[in-house]
Design a protein that fits this description.
about 260 residues, alpha/beta, Rossmann fold, about 30% helix, globular
């Protein structure tokens, strides 16, 4: 199956807004102008969506991008992918190497890559253009927002979250991905037989989120390398394992 580029959807609102915008974060978030620096002006802006503040929903310009500005709430993933299949989501997937490998190796899965950083997202988008996996979609948006707003209960077969930013400074702890509300939404949307996979090289971060995850899931710590990828599943994991850095892994299921 070959993807065809789709024309940009009509511009809903200018993206030159100021303040807290949840979709993007690869520039200084303390800079009120960061959205104007990063957005080309294609998408829909929600002026205030509760705890997420102002949210930009970008327009899809390629067939493998999620059409976030016109996506129904909740989303119909069968319509997006053109079929019904287990949904596998990697959050913070960087350039998309891992999630696109999963898409290639598991043609029976619908795979999704979510990445906020513009530089990495562009790499993933270009990689999708080269590989053109028919069962892959990607989006540049806050994963917590996407899951809360668009995902229905028990709709995800697997979540993969590898090496998220630990935000080690005390003043930045509120920026960490793993918060009570995020874990509650992961638990709500994970299928009864689904699995959440997680890894980090940051010991303090792992120690802080382990009890949090244990409140919502049945957690199994997995200190050894993944059986399907003994050298590492992601570029970070491969690099850190070669350097001899300890990796803290776990997988979680519904209680």
């Amino acid at each position: 199956m070959q993807f065809q580029a789709v024309p940009p959807l009509p511009l809903r609102e200018r993206a030159g807004v100021r303040g807290n915008v949840s979709a993007l974060s690869d520039v200084n978030e303390d800079d009120d102008d960061f959205v104007e620096k990063e957005i080309e002006g294609v998408g829909r802006v929600l002026p205030d969506d509760g705890p997420f503040g102002r949210v930009l929903l970008p327009t899809a310009t390629h067939a493998w991008e999620l059409p976030l500005d016109v996506l129904p709430v909740p989303a119909d993933w069968s319509a997006i992918y053109g079929r019904t299949a287990p949904l596998v989501v990697e959050i913070g997937c960087g350039g998309g190497r891992t999630v696109m490998t999963m898409a290639t190796d598991h043609a029976d899965w619908n795979c999704m890559g979510i990445e906020r950083c513009g530089e990495y997202y562009r790499i993933m988008r270009d990689r999708a253009a080269r590989k053109q996996p028919a069962n892959f979609r990607c989006g540049r948006i806050d994963a917590a927002y996407l899951i809360k707003r668009f995902f229905t209960d028990s709709s995800v077969h697997q979540y993969h979250i590898y090496f998220p930013d630990p935000w080690p400074k005390k003043k930045h702890l509120k920026r960490r991905l793993f918060q009570d509300s995020f874990c509650a939404d992961l638990q709500r949307t994970l299928a009864p037989t689904g699995t959440l996979y997680f890894a980090t090289d940051h010991k303090e971060y792992y120690s802080s989120i382990l009890p949090l995850l244990q409140r919502f899931f049945a957690v199994t710590e997995h200190p050894e390398p993944w059986e399907d990828a003994p050298l590492g599943r992601t570029n970070f994991e491969i690099k850190y394992m070669k350097a001899g850095r300890p990796i803290y892994r776990l997988f979680a299921t519904k209680k």
